[in-house]
Every structure is written in C-alpha cells, then in structure tokens.
Specification:
The structure holds two protein chains of two kinds.
Chain A: E1 3-7, H1 11-23, E2 27-31, H2 34-41, E3 55-59, H3 67-76, E4 85-89, H4 94-102, E5 107-110, H5 115-132
Parallel strand pairs in A: 1-2, 1-3, 3-4, 4-5
Helix pairs in contact in A: 1-5, 2-3
Chain B: H1 3-47, H2 55-59, H3 63-76, H4 83-94, H5 97-104, H6 110-123, H7 129-135, H8 141-154, H9 157-165, H10 175-183, H11 193-196, H12 202-215, H13 221-230, H14 234-247, H15 253-259, H16 265-278, H17 284-290, H18 296-307, H19 312-322, H20 329-346
Helix pairs in contact in B: 1-3, 3-4, 5-6, 6-8, 7-8, 8-10, 9-10, 10-12, 12-14, 13-14, 14-16, 15-16, 16-18, 17-18, 18-19, 18-20, 19-20
The chains are: A alpha/beta, B mainly alpha.
C-alpha cells in the first residue's frame, strides 16, 4: 500500500484529504506543521515510527516552518530527495508557482481545490514514479 | 503535630486535590471536544461520498452537533471546488444557511454583514445577487469589499453591471477589487466596457482599462494607445501601459518607450516593466539609460525588465554584472541568479526513484 503524508495546519482540510486518500485505498500519515512533516517524511512520524511516505502533500503557509522550507529541506536530504511533492496552497500568483517548482515541487495545486482531482494527481504522480523504477 | 499544623495540612491536601481535579477536568473537556470534532467531521465527510447530502445521517444529529457540522462545512467551502464543494453548498442550502445569510445582510453589525456576504458568495445561490448588490453601497468599506468579492464568486452577469457602477459615488469600492470580481464573471459582454473608456469618472475609466488589459486582446490596442496619449488621469494611463504590456504587440513598444524619459514616476516604472514583458529588444538602450537614474526602485525594475529581454537584455546584464563600478552591478548579479533559478524551475524536473 502506498503511503501519502499530508502536511497542513488546517485540521479540517488535512482530515478531508486524509479521508479521500483513505477511501481511494492509500495509507496516510498526517502532520499539522512543517517540522513534524519533515520528521515524518524521514520516517520519524510520531504516530507511525519507521514508516516512510511515498508522496508528500504540502501546504505552503504554515507557522514556524513553511511548506516551501520543508520542500527545500526534503530535496537537500539524499534520503528524502526522491519523494514526490505536491504543493497545495492558496498562493496562486505566477511568481509563487515558479517559486514552488524552484523549491522542488513536482506538482502545484491552487486552493480552492477539488479533492477528487487531488487524488487523481496523486495516482498519476505515483504511477509515473513507479514506471520509472 | 499541633492542631493548627494538622488543619494546614488538610487544607493543603484539599487544595492539591482540587487543582488535580480542575486540570484533569480541563484535559477531559479538551479530549471530549476533539472526539466530538472527529465524529462530526466524519459525518460531514460521509455526506460528501454520495451525490446528495444524506438526510438520514444529518437527521440523527443533535442540534448542537448539527450547528458544529454547519460551521465545519462553512469553513471548508472556500477551500474547495468541484463536486465536493457543490455537495457542501447543497447541504448548507438545505439546512437554511442561505436564507439566514440573506437575512443577516440587513444586520446592524458590520461583521455579521461581512460574514453573510462571504457565505452567500461561497454557497453560490444566484438569488443572492439581489441581496449583495445593495451592499456595494454599504457605509462600511469591509462590507462593500465582501459584497463585491461575493458577487464575483456568484458569477452572475447582473453582478458585473453593478460592480462597474460601484467604483464611483459616495461609497466607492476600490478599482482592483471590482476588477478581480468582474474577472470571475463569465458570459458577460466586454463590449459594455468600451463606452466606459470615455466616462467622466476617473474610476470607471480605470476599471474599464484594467478589464480590457486583463483580456490581453489585441483588438483593444488602438483604444489603449489612445488612452495612453490622451487621458488626463495618471492612474488610468498607468493601467493603459500595463494593459499594453499584456497585449504582447510590437506596436506598443514605441509609445511605451516615449513614456520612459519623461513622465510621472509611476508611469515610467510601469512602462519599463511593460517593455520587459514585451521582450522589446529595441528598448534595451532606453532601459540602459534608466539604470543610471537616481531611483533605486526604478533601477531594480529596469534590471528585471532587461532580464526578460533575450538575448540582448541578458547580455547587457552580464556586462553590467562584470563591471563592479556600475551602479546597477549588484542588482544585475542578483537578477541573473534569479534568472537561473527561474530557468531551472521551468525545466521539467525528473522525479528520481528511491
């Protein structure tokens, strides 16, 4: 079972994404902030120690450590550099999208978003990763 | 132990027991609230699974739980689009949220009117136009802005006509707020904007130019050039310059270059930026002169514009970056680094397998 890590400080949105992914047959990890998300991506989640995600969904605007910083940190660490990242954010300006991709995001989804479309994008991205292996 | 000492020990013990009971009680209440949140959330998410909200599930809820469910649905609504959003909107509509919000548009309290506008915009009921349009003339700016944004989200052509008239008068809404809202409204004939280009009100002309610019349509070029040369308002001309930059037409280059040597600072900065957006090679010598001006902000804008002009502008930036005595040397170096980052960002990144 593929594991998806959802990092978002908005509990309702985070839980909705987790619900949708679970319904679609994915395993999930969820964290409310950037630092905890980074630890979970490295396999040190507080709820499932040792489980490493196959994909990360990251909100941008979070207190203390932003999603952009998390993405840069993921790319800088050889252990997590290969994990596909989807940025899910309300930041919709062209420059911000460019910044997101420059930080290493594989896909960029702007809020308001369709949860069903998000699940399809997760499927597509994981499928491409699988095909490359 | 003296009787007094015994009493103190009992009092101290009682105090400690009370403190422990209070802390445990608070923790328990917090835990119960989280559990209730989880339960209500799962009920809400289950309603999203079907095509329609299930009345059976919702009917089983206590009144306070139903209120919490509605609050969660309202909080989620602005973040969602697509089928799930429609289901949530239908759920709220069925539970009477639209009716309540329409009533609250007439509340005396500003924040209640603002929240009502937001909810009506989020739910997207077309009837709400009738309640939102009068609020464009509300005496509180926050309500006017909320009503304008809600009308944009509703996407009704009647809302666009009202927004166009709302940028002037006793209680005007900001031009950019109106433009953002109108931009979301489809099926609205842009030809309505053309008579507004000669309207006596500066704000109406500014809005019309802004909207024409956002369409990026070449057929508006002649009108925009005419406004650039003849409109008495600097704000309107600045917007015309921005609009010309968005058209991507080489015909706009010459008139924009004429704005750079002299003119109000806002117009010069916008013209420099527009020339960069047009990738106007002919403008490189003009932009080079701008780099030597006294304004650091204008120099920064000119450097960014040059970075967008391939290859001559970028070559000039390399030349300036190598000359440590040039006033724009540091800005040119920083822009070249940003340019490289942008180039990396636009190159498709292969997802490496682990």
């Amino acid at each position: 079972m593929k594991i998806v890590l959802v990092v978002d400080d908005d509990t309702d949105i985070r839980e909705l994404i987790v619900w949708k992914l679970t319904q679609a047959g994915y395993g999930t990890l969820s964290e409310p902030d950037g630092a905890a998300g980074l630890a979970a991506a490295a396999g040190a989640s507080s709820t499932a120690f040792g489980v490493r995600p196959d994909l990360v969904i990251l909100d941008w605007a979070m207190p203390e450590m932003s999603g952009l910083d998390v993405c840069l940190a993921l790319r800088a660490d050889p252990a997590t550099a290969g994990i596909p990242v989807i940025m899910l954010t309300a930041k919709a300006q062209e420059a911000q999208v460019e910044q997101g991709f420059a930080a290493g995001a594989d896909d960029y989804i702007v809020k308001p978003f369709s949860p069903r479309e998000l699940v399809r994008r997760v499927e597509a991205l994981l499928g491409r990763v699988e095909a490359r292996r | 132990m003296t009787p007094f000492g015994g009493g103190a020990a009992v009092a101290c013990g009682l105090f400690c027991a009370l403190a422990v009971w209070a802390v445990a009680g608070r923790g328990g209440r917090h835990r119960r609230r989280l559990e209730r949140d989880d339960t209500i959330r799962s009920v809400l998410f289950r309603t999203l699974e079907g095509p329609n909200p299930s009345p059976d599930i919702l009917g089983e809820l206590r009144r306070s739980d139903a209120r919490l469910l509605e609050a969660k649905a309202r909080a989620l609504l602005p973040a969602l689009r697509g089928t799930d959003r429609e289901t949530l909107a239908r759920l709220l509509e069925e539970r009477g949220a639209t009716r309540t919000a329409r009533q609250r548009c007439h509340s005396r309290r500003t924040n209640v009117r603002v929240t009502a506008c937001q909810l009506l915009g989020d739910i997207g009921s077309s009837f709400a136009v009738l309640d939102l349009v009068p609020l464009l003339d509300d005496h509180r700016p926050a309500v006017r802005v909320a009503a304008a944004r809600a009308l944009g989200r509703l996407g009704q052509p009647a809302g666009a006509t009202a927004l166009l008239g709302a940028v002037e008068g006793r209680h005007p809404i900001p031009v950019d707020v109106a433009a953002d809202a109108i931009q979301q409204i489809r099926d609205w004939p842009l030809s309505v904007l053309h008579p507004c280009l000669t309207h006596p009100s500066e704000s109406t002309r500014a809005l019309a130019v802004e909207m024409l610019g956002r369409t990026q349509a070449l057929e508006n070029l002649t009108e925009l050039l005419d406004i650039l040369q003849n409109d008495p308002s600097t704000d309107v001309r600045v917007r015309a310059i921005r609009a010309l930059g968005r058209t991507g037409s080489p015909r706009a280059v010459e008139p924009l270059m004429e704005c750079v040597p002299s003119g109000p600072p806002a117009m010069v900065a916008e013209a420099v930026s527009a020339l960069g957006r047009l990738g106007a090679t002919a403008a490189v010598p003009t932009l080079r002169v701008t780099l030597l001006g006294p304004s650091p902000a204008l120099m920064q804008t000119a450097v960014a514009a040059l970075a967008a002009i391939e290859p001559l502008g970028v070559e000039l930036l390399h030349e300036i970056a190598a000359d440590q005595y040039h006033p724009a040397c540091t800005a040119a170096r920083a822009e070249l680094v940003r340019n490289q980052a942008r180039a990396r960002a636009t190159t498709p990144r292969a997802t490496t397998s682990r």
